[in-house]
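Q: Got one fold?
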Amino acid sequence: RSATRCRDWRNDGVLARATVATSPRSWRAHDALAAALVAEGHLPEAEREYREVMRINPRVSDAPRSLAGLLVRRGELDAAIRVLKPAAAAHRDGATWLALAQAQLLRGADAEALVALARTEELSGNVPSVRIGRAAIALRRSDPAEALRLLDGLWAARPDRADDVLPIWIQALIESGRETEATDAVCAWQPLSEVARIDRARWLGRLA
């Protein structure tokens, strides 16, 4: 029996499935299974598990954000927003309001995103993501000076957010006629992700 149990608990997915089988009304079990399914790449199954978490315990704020993240990855922005709106209203949780703002930004719903960013700031303070979101909206509204004001000093203070800050910063510099500074920023950028490395190469080609 012990050997069988050891084989069963070989990985998180097996353990999570076994726990759900024995405790089907445990939201924690379904949440763990959803996370394991995401890690395994089984996203439709993970979506069902996150919805089950929300059904069993509507007070859990992580599940709507995780579910919305899966929907955003599939390009289903309206569906993600429909998940996040009631969750944000139900929880005093800055992270959920921020997730809503980010989905609305991707959707191009800037006015709604500004409202959600303001709520995020009320609950979590003026965190970097709030400044980045507002700067992105300022740039879309052809106000590069405001985008630069919002992001001023953020790259130096939070180098871990460079991949989020610098594309907006560089575009704002270019739109402000400050191409030399934009080139300097591109050259100083050390991308942390593959997407950012592609963006940096594109900027280098454009500014060469």
The radius of gyration is 21 Å. Residues 1-10 have pLDDT under 50 and may be disordered. DSSP finds 14 helices and no strands in the chain.
